[in-house]
Amino acid sequence: MAAYNVQSLFVFFAIISLLGGGVASLCFKRLDTSAKYWTVATVLWGITGMVTVFRNELPQLWSYSIAIGVNSASFILMGLGIVRLYKQGPQWPSLLALSLATVVYTVTMELCRLHAGPKVTLVLSGLAFGLSSIWCAYPAHVHFKLTRNRFSMHMRWVMAGLGLLHLVRMQGALTGWGVETFGQDAWTLGIWSAIFVFGMMRYFTYVAMRIQEQNDARIKAAAALAREEEGRRLGSQLAQLERQQSLGIMSAALAHELNQPLGVILNYAELLQHQQRSGTSEPAMTLSVLDDIIANTSRASEIIRRIRRFIQPRQIQKTEHFDMRTVMEDVLALVAPEAVRSAITVTKSSVPEPMWVRADPVLLSQVLFNVLRNAMEAMADSSVRHIRLDIGQNKQEIQIGVADSGSGLSEEAIQKVGEPFYTTKPSGMGLGLSISKSILSQYGGRLLLTNTGSGTHALMCLPKGSPPAVKQGADRPDRAPGEQEHCARPILLQNFDLNRAIDQVAC
Questions:
Q1: Residues 195-220: pLDDT tens digits?
Q2: Distance CA 279, CA 274 (A)
Q3: Cβ(8)–Cβ(49) under 8 Å?
Q4: pLDDT at residue number 73
Q5: Positive/negative CA dihedral, 51, 73, 210, 203
Q6: What is the pLDDT of residues 403-440, one digit of tens each?
Q7: What pLDDT score does 503 carry?
Q8: What mean pLDDT is predicted for residues 174-186?
Q9: Which pLDDT value is given to residue 282?
Q10: How many whole angstroms separate alpha carbon 157 and alpha carbon 151?
């Protein structure tokens, strides 16, 4: 055997093909369907290529007809592997069709070998290898169009070139050149050398294509993460603006309510001053007046504390375990002045058990604040103004429902409400409910709006959290700070006193 002949090319390429399956397994430790197809295809080519080398020593059925049939099937399997990169679905129809086609082709090849001669079998093998390779160029082209993977473009040309070489090889049926597979003429050596070069390029291009795909996926994931971080930052800023706008709307009512305890403090201070100057002060009366001054000062401080806690900027995704009842009490106290001014009645259901949530309490207070304020504004033209706050929980989540007696929403508004900048109010920004949905979604919750026939019902759902760890010897946090026993009586907001309402909200 000469140092350089077709048999040597077959042996070399068969070894490369067998090693290619191992390389694919190493490069892609978790083989997906596409990589599995290519690994099997390269192993099949390596086995059939090695069998072809020993054609003179092995039965012609195995070393010629079956070898060529399985070899051509490996070409189609590679193309199917590229298809699996962009199209998922059932695999068995394609594999079953390929198996049946391989059997039919192998039988046809064997019959032609026995009865038609080498020129016919040359045409059959050239058509099988050439057309299957050219077909493989199409899924590579589609993958390039979808992903812009430059190695997919290279694969397209490699497959097309390999197919053309196999088709050119069929000229032997007319000219007699290269009819014998292992001929030593220059044409046979040249055409097989070119075919094997393109074959190796096909393997390396596929590996490069998959590596490029993995790199593109990492870049996309990093870009998506960066966009998400930026979106959260902008969302936090919008939420801050929305909170400030909300408090601006209610600032007059809150200022009026703050004047009440401050006015009481001033009156009591003037009374003490008058008694001291006139010498008519009594110790018991002085202590009683001082107690009232301290109580009203504490109540004024509580109002300011709640306002500051609502408006202060917070870090993104700052989470803690807390009882949702505390947030509801704070928010109800914030909306109470506006409810007084609008003559709105609020009914709150009984909540005997703690409602533990893991989230940012200030962000959730903004959500409840926005929903309650929207409910109040929806009843501006209603003769009956009533808000019902229903609170419940199950094993999975906590549910807070806010129902108003307004005019409700249209079907179009139900579909679009919550989208950024969509609003049904002439002076609204369309950000309140959008931000609320975003905040709830951030913590695995959701906001649902429905028409009840007598108004709108907003349902806020949040995953149920676990109680915070309690140090040994400490009291269990079974009740929110300052909370009394809950009851389901309405808060009638007429001749309303905010300080009394703060106490009644918890009851």
A1: 999 998 998 899 889 888 888 888 88
A2: 8
A3: no
A4: 94
A5: positive
A6: 988 877 767 666 656 554 445 554 444 456 767 777 78
A7: 39
A8: 68
A9: 80
A10: 10
pTM equals 0.49
What are the structural domains, with CATH classification, of the chain?
6-228 (1.20.1070), 318-466+480-507 (3.30.565.10)
- Give the residue among 258, 266, 438, 275 at the shortest CA–CA distance from 337: 258
Is residue 77 exposed (0-12), middle (13-18) or buried (19+ Cβ within 10 Å)?
A: buried
**Local structure of 118: helix, strand or coil:** helix
Q: With a cut of 60, say whether residue 231 has pLDDT above it.
A: yes
Three-class SS of residue 356? strand
* 325 touches 483 (CB < 8 A): yes
Nearest to 109 by CA among 77, 149, 72: 72
Q: For helices 118-147 and 67-83, give the axis angle rounded to 10 degrees.
A: 10
DSSP string of 194-243, one letter each residue: HHHHHHHHHHHHHHHHHHHHHHHHHHHHHHHHHHHHHHHHHHHHHHHHHH
Instruction: Write down the H helix ranges in 316-416.
Output: 324-341, 361-378, 411-416
Q: What is the mean pLDDT of the chain?
A: 77
CB 444 within 8 A of CB 437: no
Can you give 399-453 as a three-state secondary structure string?
EEEEEECCCCCCHHHHHHCCCCCCCCCCCCCCCHHHHHHHHHHHCCCEEEEEECC
What is the rounded CA–CA span in Å between residue 362 and residue 310? Answer: 6
Q: Parallel, antiparallel, or unpaired for β 446-451 and 456-463?
A: antiparallel
Give SS3 for 136: helix
**pLDDT at 355 exceeding the cut of 60:** yes
- What are the helix (H) ranges across 54-117? 60, 67-83, 92-115
**Quick check: helix, strand or coil at residue 184?**
coil
CA dist., res. 84 & res. 94, Å (int): 11
Of 200, 205, 195, 467, nearest to 321 (Cα)? Answer: 467
pLDDT digits (tens, 9 = 90+) for 83-139: 998 888 888 899 999 999 999 999 999 999 999 888 898 899 999 999 999 999 999
3 state SS of 52:
helix
Q: How many residues does the chain have?
A: 507
Determine whether 358 is exposed, middle or buried from the number of CB atoms within 10 Å of its CB (0-12, 13-18, 19+).
Answer: middle
pLDDT digits (tens, 9 = 90+) for 242-294: 666 655 655 654 565 566 667 668 777 887 888 888 877 788 888 887 887 88
Name the token pair of 311. 């408006």
Q: Give the rounded percent of residues in the chain with a pLDDT score beyond 90.
A: 18
Place of tokens 């808060």: 491
One-letter amino acid for residue 262 of the chain: L
Q: Which amino acid is at 158?
A: V
Tokens of 350: 């009984």
* Cα–Cα distance for residue pair 375/382, rounded to 1 Å: 11
Q: How far apart are CA 25 and CA 16, in angstroms?
A: 14
